Amino acid sequence: PELPWAIKSEEKAKYDSIFDSLNPVSGLLSGEKVKPVLLNSKLPVDILGRVWELSDIDHDGMLDRDEFAVAMFLVYCALEKEPVPMSLPPALVPPSKR
Amino acid sequence: QFPTGSSSTNPFL
């Protein structure tokens, strides 16, 4: 059976509104646009670097809506002292990227 | 993927 995405729809809606507030270009946000938002979490830069690596699934230097939701989810987990994993758990991979 | 990642696509590295 299809593994449900770890990000629930109400969380996704919250992340989507942040995504849209950052003015995505053709549905993508550049690293420069995302960086201030993630730095706002006051997390150490090496943690944010790992969050980026895990969420920029296609490694294009940009985050689309789903990748951005993964990044935000990982940041919130890190803020609750959940260590950021070394690799993306399957349940976190957006259905669009499986 | 490598945890350190490449600075070309990662704005934090």
Helix and strand layout, with pairings?
The complex is a heterodimer of chains A (98) and B (13).
Chain A: H1 9-21, E1 28-30, H2 31-39, H3 45-55, E2 62-64, H4 65-79
Antiparallel strand pairs in A: 1-2
Helix pairs in contact in A: 1-4, 3-4
Chain B: no helix or strand
Structural features, described:
The model of chain A has no long low-confidence stretch (mean pLDDT 96). Chain A is mostly helical. A two-stranded antiparallel sheet of chain A has the order 1-2. Chain A has helices at 9-21, 31-39, 45-55, 65-79, and strands spanning 28-30, 62-64. The longest helix of chain A has 15 residues, at 65-79. Chain B has 13 residues and is largely without helices or strands. Chain B has no helix or strand.
As a percent range, the share of helical residues of chain A equals: 40-55%
Task: Give the fraction of residues assigned to helices of chain B.
Answer: under 10%
Q: Alpha-carbon distance between the termini of chain A? A: 14 Å
Structural class of chain B: little secondary structure
Oligomer: heterodimer
- Total number of helices of chain A: 4
Helix count from the secondary structure assignment of chain B: 0
User: Which overall shape of chain B is indicated by the principal axes computed on the Cα atoms?
Assistant: globular
User: What average pLDDT do the residues of chain A reach?
Assistant: 96
- Going across the biggest sheet of chain A, name each strand in turn: 1-2
